[in-house]
Write a structure and sequence with these properties.
heterotrimer; A alpha+beta; B mainly alpha; C mainly alpha; A: 4-stranded mixed β-sheet; 4-stranded antiparallel β-sheet; 30% helix; B: mainly alpha; 13 helices
Chain lengths: 532, 309, 299
Amino acid sequence: MFARKGTRRVAHAIGGAALALALLSSCSVPGTGGGSGGEGGTSFKISMYDPVNLTPANTWDYNLSKMLFTTPMDLDAESGEPVPAAAKSVESDDQLTWTITLQDGWTFHNGEPMTSQSFVDAWNTAALGKNAWLQNGSFSKIVGYAEMNPAEGEPQATELSGLEVVSDTEFTVTLTEPFGLFPYLLTSNAFAPMPEAAFADLDGFGKQPIGNGPYSIVNSYEPNQPVEVTRFEEYQGRPGNADQITFVPYQSQDTAFNDLLAGNIDIVYPVPPDRLGDVDGLVDGRTAVSKIPNLNYLGLPLWDERYSDVRVRQALSMAIDRDAFTEKILNGAGASASSLAPDTVVGSQENVCESCTFDPDAAKKLLEEAGGWSGEMVLYGDQYTGRDQELQAIANQFKNVLGIEGITFELSSYAKHAEIVDARQVQGPFQLYMGAYYPHISDFLGPLVTTDGYGNKSGYSNPRVDALVSEANGLSVEDGIPLFEEAEKLVWQDMPIIPLYYGYYTAAWSDNVQSVPVGFSGLGDLRDVKVN
Amino acid sequence: MAGYIVKRLLQVIPVFLGTTFLIFVVVYALPGDPIAALGGGKQHLSPSVYNELRQRYNLDDPLLVQYGKYMLNLFQGNFGTDFQGHEVSAIIARNWPTSILLGTTAWAMQVVVGIPLGIWAALNRGRFPDHLVGIVTTLAFAVPVFVVAYVSQILFGVQLKWFPVAGVSAGWPIAFIVPAAALAIMGLAATARLTRSSLIENLGSDYVRTAIAKGIPRRQVIMNHAMRNSLIPVVTYLGIEFGALMGGAIIIEGIFNLPGLGNQIFLAIGQQNGPTVVGISTLLVIVFLVVNLIVDVLYAYLDPRIRHA
Amino acid sequence: MPETVSAPRTEAIVTAAPRRKLSFALLRRPGFTIPAVVVLLFLVISVVPAPFASLFGNGDPRECDLMYSGMPPSSGHPFGFDVQGCDLYANVIYGARPSITIAILVTFSTMLIAIVLGLLSGFYGGWFDNVLGRITDVFYGFPFMVAAIVILTAIGVRNILTVCVTLAIFSWPTQTRVMRSNVMSVKHMEYVRAARALGASNGRLMRKHILPNAVQPVIVLSSLSVGGIIAGEAGLTYLGVGLQAPAISWGLQLNTAQNYFNSHPHLLIFPSLFLCVTVLAFVILGDTVRDILDPKVRK
């Protein structure tokens, strides 16, 4: 199913690119460039977190990697669905074995052709646990990963046995189980290719990578120093607007924001929460809000008998006035959650969680039916700025609506919080953040509410949900949606977690740039940015 | 003199080892797994990578072994690498200049404003200037530094727009004036008070009275005799203060967003980045010990009674 | 770190070993009575905050409604509302308790430790004095802020007790040093030698002859540093490593206020005003005590 759709999209994409090229050649005047670019070029500066390493599978950096490398698929800015990029098509009949056909004639920045081997070599290196590349986990669905990453002892293999090169432009990937969303996975930077030249000196590559993306690196990376990239003129995909982009690392977004106001930088993302109140006035409204796929929620210790009655969990959820919460406490940096995922996510259903609506009377009644609340309540959270106020607001509402007095908090560093949550040492609702890797409901349901999900900290286990999610994952995207929807409905009958809000992140920019793409993944494709 | 210096140097060694060990123990006891914190709560590491990273940073070694390894490296001038793979010495090299600039500016303010204020008060003892200095210094002691910093940021940065709200992009001196003033204010008050009391004490001493009785002009007596002697404790105090100011200022750097050592170490504590915390703390201890040593030796040089005590 | 009123700074201001006795002279000085009344008032407030908090009719600091979040002062709510929609005046009044409690606990525990250790080490000297000297050196060399933040982060539990312990860890060395040096100078006084010659035991010598004559500088130093302790607690809490919600404290109120300053400036003003007045009262009180006990700086 996906195959056909994929191929069709490629046709669209090629058509679009051709049209764009035609438009460009007819209207653009060569060598123009307004804005800040000195010698006739256009350029802009953007803030980032220090990427530490520029090897795409060994960094959490997103935007810089996306400029240096092009992954097999890209997320469409409008629909949030995967569209072909470095791959011409990604197809499968059984969602188990996927055939990836690459674009013809693409090269790396050093002139080396981009072939199937460039992908296979890069993925094998990233998938080997010994290399300790940060995004290693992305490859766990491919056959052979387990042998390369044993729980203990030495790895029995150094290559993914599920990868098979068919030709220079075609290779196949075999998964351990059917997974219809594999094309989504291929939009991640972890799946970027690497040229042969990289493997001679991987450390050097991490500092000065040779990519296949729309921009090539100018200088070598140094910790906390700006990285400059320049447009790669032989790039076969959609080219970038600006001639040059400088990525400036900041340790704190407050500093970055101050630099934006001082005119030292053009784009800042995200704007620090305490500046959201006055940001519009400061930059004349040159801001946009990104609704990246995330959920802030309260996990519940289902193993604790005080929380074992679903009516108690529903009562707690219905006691929270999420609209007042997002407006007053978050200053608008989030939207009330009424399901697992925000509406920018494929397969999300608004208001599917009925108990996520503020209803004090019903909440009170439910709690009474369940025998009321006795004993103390502790709320757990990490020490992210403002978290104590979030918990305080929730505690106040539990008190006002349900009459639960003397609620205390335990706020710990992020790592400690994660540790006590994992070890089930929490004895009350615990605040957590779930960020999906791609905007699809599967990446919320799978981690959060399936029995083995890595983000399932409540100890929730419902065989029917597991079965539905697993079955849906094995289908193509279209066929899977109804099953995912059914699974989420089941989840809310059990109320294993209390959704709070979907966090918003704001980008702000200077008058030097326009068309700053802000979308479901934060800052979007920087190729779109135009320099004034 | 040489004997005294050697004796003081020998005293420094156990203090240095004790202090760094204590830092190490406390950082080691930081709750939460630093490797798990690497993803910052938004990302998640695969188990195999997690195990590999723990090994690379010796995290599974016992405390004493870790401390030993660290000390061995330190004596070779190696501050280690943080959990993101950055050299801690590079972090220090990048952030220290900002702290030094901030500290030196604040220190200069203490000297240039504090000492004259103290002299002015002492020479006008019991009169209006004395009372004024008394009230001002009392206020300076009373208002907590973060309140001073925050209020002045809002007043001069946000409301009046005379100075940048935060950040160092405006460069020295403009970006450093408000934070340095906020940082200096308490030490400035202490300097003024110390100068005042020390000068008053000397003015009342026999040798000053004798000199004036002998007909030497009062002004000359004050400048040549009383001032020189009364500045000895002030200089000592300012010396120690200088050392303390070199180490950065967590609150001030945080509020004004200055990328100095204080800001860096606060971030590192929050991220469980032990190597950075230990590295910067060790540096601060070294600076403190060296400055104290210099001050002590200077003092011993100025006042011979000390070295024979 | 030079930011908190650290002990070395106050030590620099205390100049010499005084000999005069604390007397009723204090009561006749406005520099004593006015701050003493303020301190007393805050002391009473921290013991029984309820009547003070309900002066304007809304005395429950935990009666909150998000509907009123951040509203400016109005009738019955002289300071307005905080972010949570609680009465800010009631919260500021209740916020006195942790500050005062911490000030008292830290001051007295530090004084006690300093007097005992300083007395023993100054009197006996020898290896005990040496070891203690090096230990105080170690604590002296610590950058206070860094160490306090790391310790509080490491303990994980943030309440009045842990904040007190952390502050005390870094206050005792200075005072112990002052005590020790005073004991050493008093030890050689003629009346002490006389008492020893008459057969007084070591314990009696320390208790009856040395302690009363060596303790005054420690009292002066303590009274001078009370303000610093309150400011220290507020600073740590402000940084997010001191007291924790749902506790009510000025430091916490200021910590929250900084994130909402643009929209609700009054959240910053009232707690800092109360904090400053309290610290000021203690500082002036300390100054006056020092002036009276230390004749050198007296007018």
